[in-house]
Amino acid sequence: MAETLDQLFVLAKHALVDSTPAAWRPWVSSILSIAAMIMAFATLFALTTILERKGLGRIQNRLGPNRVGPFGLLQPLADGVKSLTKEDLVPRSADRVLHFLAPLVLVIPVFLALAVVPVGRNMVAVDLDAGILFFFAVGAATELSVFMAGWSSRNKYSVLGAMRAVSQMISYEIPLILSALPVVMITGSLSTVQIVERQAVFTGLLPSWNVLTPWGLAAFLLFLIAGTAEANRCPFDLPEGESEIIAGYYTEYSGFKFALFFLGEYIGLFAMSGLAITLFLGGWSAPLAALAFIPGYVWFFGKLLALIFLFIWVRGTLPRLRMDQLMNFAWKFMLPMSLMTILSAGAWHLMSPTPGVPLSSAEAVTHSAGGTIARWLVCGFLVAAPYILLGRYLTEGRNVGPRTYRYAD
How many CB atoms lie within 10 A of CB 192? Predict the structure, then answer.
């Protein structure tokens, strides 16, 4: 039943494509895929803005938006109208060409990254054999846009914010990619579609999600933390620290250009969350075999909303880090831990049976119930021991907590 419901959108698209002349069909198919993707995630962007403001209001014991429309639900529409009608101010000394192109260079790559994220069964804009590689390749373009925004503004605070953002994004992009490598190693493919299909296999009631393994859980947590830093979300929002550098690299932006930066950050957050769901949470697959009748796209967007709620909760709970804490955490904790997850995934693969290959007597003992427990203990130790050691090193007072100064009597 779920497969039939998943195919409704695909069949409708094919019917529209087949009704056009043969020479136009590739273009019509691409336009329909792009339009559906933009409409879905743009709607989700508007919904997320109101949910975040309402959620933060609840956390901070205030009402949040409640004046525009019933319960403030039309607030995103009012914000959009305000952004379109607000005056676009450009500094006299700014580089007008780069100042104009920077928000566009930020928005376009994040939508391209969404093109390889499967939102349902046979529902992906572009099915690439190297989808993971494409995702990270186009995502790297956002660093260029951030630097363009800061440099073109000819403002020292904007330049400082841009340099902070670029250094932060480069530092956390390394553990982000390394935390995705174990999934590629275990799956043996860079295709996002094949990664989801491999996790959609049920072993009893539970699916074969990567997060249900020791290395998968550790890699998932590291991926979420690095993704939060890549999206400049709290507590890693130093590039736009108002108390230090006004609004960071988009200090000199207003009107619709500022709205494009806002849109790009949220769409980038959706893309990062969608990739996390694809790599670790089974993509569009159900969490239990008994719930597999629900369409895949419902499960995907349900998981996406759950991760968005987690990001909103973190923003309303955790304080902002210092810059030295942020960089130390990336290089002294995130990077070693991501390398250990790769080692743990390799040990898991070596100790796991190969599907379709008969086991020898020695291998049968290794892959028995006792062997499964040993596999969990070994892989769990490989990710837990470095976490404890590195965590103690980072919390010895050397890098965490307020600085103390001793004054002479």
Answer: 25
Q: By the 8 A CB rule, do 72 and 50 touch?
A: yes
How far is 340 from 337, CA to CA, in rounded Å?
A: 5
Which CA distances in Å does 151 have to 100, 102, 265, 306? 12, 10, 19, 36
Q: Which residues in 334-368 are b (16+ Cβ under 10 Å) and which e? A: bbebbebbbebbbbbeebeeeeeeeeeeeeeebbe
Distance in angstroms (rounded) separating the CA atoms of residues 376 and 314: 30
Token pair belonging to 320: 């902002």
Residue found under tokens 């427990």? 373
CA distance 146 to 343: 34
Could you give the CA distance from residue 353 to residue 363 in angstroms, rounded to a whole number? 8
Q: State the pTM of this model.
A: 0.86
Q: Which amino acid is at 277?
A: I
Question: What value does the mean pLDDT of the chain take?
Answer: 81
Q: Is the dihedral of CA 47, 48, 50, 55 positive or negative?
A: positive
d(CA 333, CA 202): 34
What DSSP character marks residue 93?
Answer: T
Tell me which DSSP letter residue 333 carries. I
Q: Kindly list the domain boundaries of the chain, sorted by start residue.
A: 2-351+365-394
Q: From CA 399, how far away is CA 22, in angstroms rounded? A: 63
Q: Give which of 110, 90, 102 is closest to 151, Cα–Cα.
A: 102
For the chain, how far is it from start to end, CA to CA, in angstroms?
79
- Tokens linked to 229: 């830093």
The encoded tokens of residue 294 equal 């629900």
Residues 353-369 pLDDT 10s: 655 444 454 544 445 55
80: tokens are: 């959009």
CB 278 within 8 A of CB 196: yes
DSSP symbol at 291: G
Does residue 269 or residue 386 have the better pLDDT? 269
Q: Helix 369-394 and helix 214-230: axis angle, to 10°? A: 40
Q: In the prediction, which pLDDT does 399 show?
A: 47
At 10, is the secondary structure helix, strand, or coil? helix
Which SS3 state, helix, strand or coil, does residue 89 take? Answer: coil
- Distance separating alpha carbons of residues 229 and 165, to the nearest angstrom: 9
Task: Give 205-232 pLDDT, tens digit per residue.
Answer: 788 889 988 888 999 999 999 999 888 8
* Nearest 10 degrees: Cα torsion 314, 315, 317, 319: 120
